[in-house]
Design brief:
Layout (H helix, E strand, L loop, with lengths): L1 H14 L10 H24 L3 H22 L5 H25 L3 H24 L10 H28 L3 H22 L4 H24 L11 H31 L1
């Protein structure tokens, strides 16, 4: 009985804490798309431009992910640059892991997408069974936040495979893939504003689809011209995208401060 009471008090205490993830606004989605694009160019820069290969690059980026997410889990409040640093770590790791699975292991884009989709569903199912919800409205406990980051890592990896599957296997091309995924995101946005569809379902659908959108945009930037890309330098493109993320996160932070100040008046 005492343990149940202590657990209840802990839950009530956690409920009063501020969420450790940002509010889901238009700026959130804009930064997410830029971050996923950086994940593609950054992942390709290490695995291809440095010629380290997908396996070695995956080990490097998974290590960075574990390091950044450990710091994220240890802090008690939301820190914008830390949060988006972990997001970028998941996108770069997702890029190289998906490429390793679909290319080095030889299971192809279709097999890789199916496998990663199954892992994503399993992650969401275990999260739901353990916490009773997969909503991202209030990420306040370490257990829930751990499920949150595991699910995001799987979704980022799946998104890379989906982007490659659409652009390469189906001969849609990088521009066509970006248009297709952009249109799908527009449909989800319309469902958000015009219907009563589950906000949690719409969030995860949009979160997954922003990754292949970023993947196709990244490939469009850095792939050779004869492969349908613009052949931009991967390191230069990654640097520009990283600067854009820093600026956008700073602007989002200022916007939040102004909103809080108005609410306090």
């Amino acid at each position: 009985m005492a343990k149940l009471q202590a657990a209840s008090e802990h839950d009530l205490s956690a409920a009063g804490l501020a969420s450790k993830v940002p509010a889901i606004t238009l700026m959130f989605w804009l930064i997410k798309i830029v971050a996923t694009t950086l994940g593609e160019t950054g992942g390709d820069a290490v695995s291809m431009s440095l010629d380290l290969g997908y396996a070695v690059a995956s080990v490097i980026f998974i290590g960075i992910f574990f390091l950044t997410v450990a710091v994220q889990l240890s802090v008690k409040a939301f820190h914008p640059f830390l949060y988006w640093g972990v997001i970028v770590a998941t996108t770069t790791a997702g890029t190289t892991m998906a490429d390793y699975a679909t290319r080095s292991l030889g299971i192809g884009y279709t097999g890789g997408s199916a496998m990663l989709f199954a892992l994503l569903l399993a992650s969401l199912a275990v999260w739901y069974l353990a916490a009773g919800s997969v909503s991202v409205e209030r990420i306040v406990s370490r257990k829930v936040e751990t499920f949150y980051w595991i699910t995001i890592l799987f979704s980022q990896t799946l998104g890379t495979a989906l982007g490659d599957w659409v652009a390469d296997t189906n001969d849609v091309g990088y521009e066509g893939g970006a248009i297709l995924f952009g249109a799908m995101l527009a449909i989800i946005a319309a469902a958000y504003y015009l219907t009563n569809a589950s906000r949690t379902l719409l969030f995860w659908s949009a979160f997954i689809l922003t990754r292949p959108l970023g993947a196709t945009l990244g490939d469009l930037l850095d792939k050779p011209i004869d492969h349908g890309g613009l052949a931009l330098d991967r390191f230069a493109a990654s640097a520009v995208l990283a600067i854009a993320i820093i600026v956008l996160v700073a602007l989002a932070g200022r916007g939040s401060e102004r909103t809080a100040a108005k609410a306090a008046v």
